Amino acid sequence: MSSSIPAEGEVPSTAIDTVSRMSLLNISEEHLQDEKQSLHNAPLVSSYNDKIRPLLGAVDRLRHLKIMQEGIQLPTIVVVGDQSSGKSSVLESLAGISLPRGQGICTRVPLIMRLQSHTSPKAELFLEYDGRVVPTDEEHIAGAIITATDKIAGQGKGISNTPLTLIVKKRGVPDLTMVDLPGITRVPVYGQPEDIYEQISKIIMEYITPEESIILNVLSASVDFSTCESIRMSQRVDKTGQRTLAVVTKVDKAPEGLLEKVTMDDVNIGLGYICVRNRIGDESYEEAREEEAKLFDNHPLLSKMNRSIVGIPLLAERLVKIQATIIVKCLPDIVRKINDKLSSNVEELNKLPRNLTSIGEAMTAFMHILGSAKESLRKTLLRGEFDDYPDEHDMHCTARLAEMLNQYSEELQSKSSANATKNAFLLDVISVLEETKAIGLPNFLPRAAFLTLLQKNVKGISFAPIAFVEKIWDYIEKVVVSVLMRHSDNYPQLLSSTRRAAQNLVSKRKKQSIDWVIDIIEMEKLTDYTCNPEYVSMWNKLMAHQNEFMKALNDHSKPRNLHIDGYGDVDVAHLRSHVAVAQEAFDLKMRLTAYWNVVLRRLVDGMALHLQFSVQNLVNKEMEIEIINEMVGPNGNGLERMLEESPTIAEKRKRLNNSVKLLKEAKDVVSKIIDKIAAYVK
Ligand code: GDP
Ligand code: MG
To answer: Per the record, a Pfam family (predicted)?
Structure first.
């Protein structure tokens, strides 16, 4: 599928070529906006027509394909205006046909009007809606539009956002595509829904918001422009007015002060004003144009207006130029967007799981998920490679685990020293010695005393290793679940089983670790042993202070404070009444201190090895067995479930397929037009 996608940059560069070719054709933006060659310059319009027609045709085809559904905006001339301001009449004047008009709401759906000049003297008219093309003629057009509108928006006065397309092929019309929108009404008339204003403004905003839209603001000469709802709306999306052109209608009815109004430009119309007189009553199109010309030639006030801002022919010409400008400006971007969108959709489509049709296929897909999840777990939990999760701090597991282990070690240290300083120096040892006294020689340290003290110490920190193990496994569970979820993302049917498998396994492992920790703690309580020579060397270092300590006790002139290297500062004043046991107590305390260091390190080292071992086993062996059991074990029907495609995936696949089809067609349209332009230039 992806083979039909062009290499990046391919089409956009062609599109840029198009722009430079357009400049060669002398229809660059500056040229298009050159106001001097304006009035009644029919050949100019038609030469623009010839050149712009293929481009406009392409844009129209894109519109017809509904490319806007893909979020790709097309250059569009949007006709807005308050109700009865004369929108339909202006379009009618441009097309030389009769549209439904009158009191009340007539334009109830967006009407896309495509005017195409053709050579035959006979006009051809079509209406397109609901995927149908209905031929009609000038005589029946008004009725046909009403019928079509009723079909789209229902009979009555409701409105709809589904557009109706009117194609007018007629000699002498400018090549223009415009969208006529329902007029804005503040107050619903009888039979209109209450929220008619909101409905209409929503449609209008949708059409005029894109930067690609030119807003043709139709204003009646008889009103104060600044009170027009349509002006307020267009100002919201086009503050500077740079893409707003005003058409002032009904100049025949209110010629007074018109010149001042358009010269003052109170309402910020960037593209300027054009004043027109539309068809009145039963006039034919030709009669109406004659009347308009007469009016601007002879009327005492209107004849004073600059020729460059009056009349339907001039409006036609301006619109053709503006249209060419925006198309030339927007086309490269459109081509780029089509390509971007197409390749991202194709990519997304390829990422969707294949629709599985047999147990064998399901098995393959399942094994693939299992394999890739396992590899991902190895990377994150064991090897410390986090390219799968570059920005997710929590998923950089080896670093987080090391961090937690360090914290654990610090916690053990600080907890121990807090326990040690709770009592005054040696008093706890002395009271234990009192209680372990026995009938025997005095210069043997009772082992029972040492063990009692050791057990007290171990008990004092015993909650910390258990809490640590719980915390670590909670963390691992989060990581494992998140990796598994990510890998089974495409098969929602797998999500719950894999999650369950991971949670079961982790909770089993957590329990095992807690049992292990409890055993370790019991072992530490039971036996005092180490082969670590550091124990003896530390004890010697501490015992080097024994003499100094005893002197401080016996000789009351010595300071009562002393510093024991490796233990800390102690105050001995309270011990001067316990001189008899002090020496023995000091020895015992120093043995305990030297040994306690060994115990703490053993707790941390053992924990580190245990965790590495358990996580390694979990990732390399146990995880997949657990998941397989859950999926295809005695109670699992996971593979069967994988065969049923989830409705969300099916829906997504359908949507993407439609969108890819549409974008491919759109790509065909634009690539053809680009070739055409190239051929035309040569
Ligand atoms: P829309 O609601 O904006 O589409 O307005 P219409 O085009 O339906 O026009 C409303 C009314 O104004 C109709 O009766 C038209 O005949 C009338 N009208 C439109 N333009 C002119 C004009 O230039 N001069 C005069 N005298 N009447 C006009
Ligand atoms: Mg109308």
So the answer is: GED
Choose the residue to mutate in 78, 101, 292, 315 for probing ligand 1, maximizing ligand atoms within 8 Å of C-beta. Answer: 101
> What confidence tens digit (pLDDT) does each residue in 171-189 have?
888 888 999 988 887 776 7
Q: Whose CA is nearest to atom 28 of ligand 1?
A: 250
How far apart, in Å, are the Cα atoms of 78 and each of 127, 184, 246, 277, 358?
Answer: 19, 14, 12, 20, 53
Residue nearest to atom 2 of ligand 1 (CA): 84
The partner residues of 79 in beta bridges, in order of sequence, read: 180, 216
> How far does the centroid of ligand 2 lie from the alpha carbon of residue 55, in Å?
28
User: 359-644: what CATH class?
Assistant: mainly alpha
Q: How many helices (H) and strands (E) does the chain have?
A: 22, 11
Ligand 1 centroid – CA 84 distance (Å) = 6
Of the pLDDT bands very low, low, confident and very high (cuts 50, 70, 90), residue 68 is: confident
- Yes or no: say if 83 and 184 are a contact pair by the CB < 8 Å rule: yes
Task: Give the Å distance between the CA of 280 and the centre of ligand 2.
Answer: 15
Helix (H) or strand (E) holding 136: strand 132-136
How far apart CA 27 and CA 33 sit, in angstroms, is 9
Report CA(83)–ligand 1 centroid distance (Å). 10
Q: Report the separation in Å between the CA atom of 91 and the middle of ligand 2, taken as the mean of its atom positions.
A: 9
Distance, in Å, from the CA atom of 166 to the CA atom of 144, rounded to the nearest integer, reads 10
Reported as a pLDDT band with limits 50, 70 and 90, residue 7 is very low
SS (H, E, C) 239-288: CCCCCEEEEEECCCCCCCCHHHHHHHCCCCCCCCEEECCCCCCCCCHHHH
| Probe residue for ligand 1, chosen from 80, 84, 216 as the CB with the greatest number of ligand atoms within 8 Å | 84
Tokens found for residue 159: 């409105």
Look at the alpha carbons of 244, 249, 254, 256 in this order and tell me if their dihedral is positive or negative: positive
Instruction: For residues 389-415, give the mean pLDDT.
Output: 94
Query: Which residue CA neighbors atom 1 of ligand 1 most closely?
Result: 84
List ligand 1's pocket residues with C-beta within 6 A. Answer: 81, 83-89, 101-102, 106-107, 183, 249-250, 252-253, 277-278, 280
> Could you say which ligand is closest to the alpha carbon of residue 101?
1
Tell me the pLDDT band of 102, cut-offs 50, 70 and 90.
low
Q: 112-142: per-residue pLDDT in tens?
A: 999 988 888 888 999 999 888 999 988 888 8
Nearest Cα residue to 567 out of 548, 539, 534: 539
Distance CA 240, CA 242 (A): 5
Angstrom CA distances, 213 to 75, 218, 242, stand at: 5, 15, 11
Q: Where are the domains of the chain?
A: 10-344+669-681, 359-644
Q: What is the mean pLDDT of residues 71-95?
A: 89
For residue 249, which atom of ligand 1 is closest to its CA? 23
- Same fold for the pair 10-344+669-681 and 359-644: no
The rounded Å distance from CA 611 to ligand 1 centre is 84
Q: What is the pLDDT of residues 613-653, one digit of tens each?
A: 999 999 999 999 999 988 887 776 778 888 887 788 888 88
Average confidence (pLDDT) over 403-421: 91
Average pLDDT of the chain is: 85
Can you tell me which atom of ligand 1 is nearest the CA of 85? 3
- Of 209, 32, 178, the C-alpha closest to 92 is 178
Topology of 10-344+669-681 in CATH? Rossmann fold (3.40.50)
Atom of ligand 1 nearest to the CA of 101: 8
